[in-house]
Amino acid sequence: MEDLRIGVIGLGLRTSLALAAHRPGKGSVVTALCDSDPAVLKRQAGRFEAEYLTEDYRELLDRPDLDAIVVNTPDDTHERLAIDCLEAGKPVYLEKPMAITVEGCDNILRAARRTGTKLYVGHNMRHMGVVRLMRDIIRKGVIGEPKTVWVRHFVSYGGDYYFKDWHADRTRTTGLLLQKAAHDLDVIHWLAGGYTTRVNAFGDLMVYGDLPRREPGTPRPEGWLKDFDWPPTARRDLHHVVDVEDVSVMNMRLDNGVIAAYQQCHFTPDYVRNYTVIGTEGRLENFGDGPGDTVKVWNTGPAGYRGEGDITYKVPAAQGSHGGADPEILAEFCRFVRDGGVTDTSPVAARMSVAAGYMATMSLRDGGMPYDVPALDPELAAYFDNGQR
Ligand SMILES: NC(=O)c1ccc[n+]([C@@H]2O[C@H](COP(=O)([O-])OP(=O)(O)OC[C@H]3O[C@@H](n4cnc5c(N)ncnc54)[C@H](O)[C@@H]3O)[C@@H](O)[C@H]2O)c1
Fold first, then answer.
1. Where is the GFO/IDH/MocA-like oxidoreductase domain (predicted)?
2. Cα(30)–Cα(348) distance, rounded to whole angstroms?
3. Distance from the CA of 17 to the center of ligand 1, in angstroms?
4. 210: Cβ–Cβ under 8 A, 6 or more apart, which residues?
5. What is the residue with the minimal CA distance to atom 39 of ligand 1?
6. 11 CB under 6 A from ligand 1?
């Protein structure tokens, strides 16, 4: 089996994914790199043996030697770049979130259908051990039929990761309830077996609105992801535009009747996702979200507080970035490019997570008014449900 030859567009923080795709002799090799910033391109080139470097992504689209393209650029560029790749006939791995608006997602889905080119959206949490374990527990019926899902997301390094660059600017992301939460909204949908139809949310910019910012055009500070500041109010060198919320809470009703809630805070001391799923015959909760952490189930009762639970499951060991999810998702993408077929990620689900996050952001900026989530064109949904055939 020959390696798939992959071109990567965008070599910032998410170069971790490009490195997971570079496995010469083991299925895929990165042979072409693109970043619009020449300094970044030069710096990252040494980590790959890429034959071709360019600052203009359009130059990758005509190269017959590329089997697929990975798009790792900021969210507001996804729609244009993904559509251009699809129209050039290049199968595309598009990072999450799919786009920053519902319309942007639908334009990408329509381009995939029109061109017949394979589209894959990188919701790597579907390949995280803790998520797969929770899904297995639910599918085996250990907690009965899932009825409500509650997620708390503690983002300790939020001030550094999300308020020192483009993430903090709503024109480039819509907001963090879409940008960051797209992962968990997708997982909520996957665990609950439905898609959100109605949302409301509250949120605010509580801590990072008043801290010192950098001048426009100045790069992210040296060591910005190594030297974390504490307490959060000690953070400096924020992006010159900061107008997204650092706290948000969101409620959802799904099309199968499940009710869910998601909460996100960017100034916690610790980083962790905490999920609780309550079914008709029990409840699960994760304690830690990486390899070696646990998911506990309580499925006898009723009782008072019981810290131990009835069953404790361990999240399996894994190698690689994002708790082993990145090598797994890349392997799935390569299989999909070669053979097609069913995948654990889904472009329709990716669109539905953006749609829920987008409408929740509209709600929180409108005093918490409930909003309906626009339905996807059923013909488009059918095309993707049928494996893009
Ligand atoms: N799935 C995950 O776990 C995960 C984790 C982190 C980031 N992401 C996603 O990956 C994407 C990239 O995030 P990041 O943190 O690496 O951003 P980043 O700002 O660190 O890097 C983005 C890079 O893209 C380049 N770029 C911008 N526009 C370009 C264009 N038109 N052509 C070529 N290069 C261009 C920039 O110069 C920069 O080097 C985002 O969509 C983000 O949501 C996903």
1. 132-285
2. 27
3. 11
4. none
5. 12
6. yes
Other Cβ atoms less than 10 A from the Cβ of 342: the count is 9
| Superfamily per CATH, domain 129-325 | Dihydrodipicolinate Reductase; domain 2 (3.30.360.10)
- Tokens found for residue 290: 């990486």
- CB of 10 closer than 6 A to ligand 1? yes
Q: Check pLDDT > 90 for residue 226.
A: no
109 CA from centroid of ligand 1 (Å): 21
How many angstroms does the Cα of residue 224 sit away from the middle of ligand 1?
16
Question: What pLDDT sits at residue 321?
Answer: 87
* Mean pLDDT, all residues of the chain: 96
pTM comes to: 0.98
- Say if residues 29 and 6 touch (Cβ distance below 8 Å): yes
Residue spans of the domains in the chain: they are 129-325
Q: Rounded to the nearest whole angstrom, what is the distance from the C-alpha of residue 90 to the centroid of ligand 1?
A: 19
- 3-state SS assignment for residue 158: helix
98 in Cβ contact with 105 (< 8 Å): yes
pLDDT in tens, 271-322: 999 999 999 999 999 999 999 999 999 999 999 999 999 999 999 999 988 9
User: Residue 373 in contact with residue 356, Cβ under 8 Å?
Assistant: yes
**Could you tell me if the CB of 165 is within 6 A of ligand 1?**
yes
What phi and psi, each to the nearest 5 degrees, are found at residue 244?
-105, 160
For the CA of 325, the closest atom of ligand 1 is 3
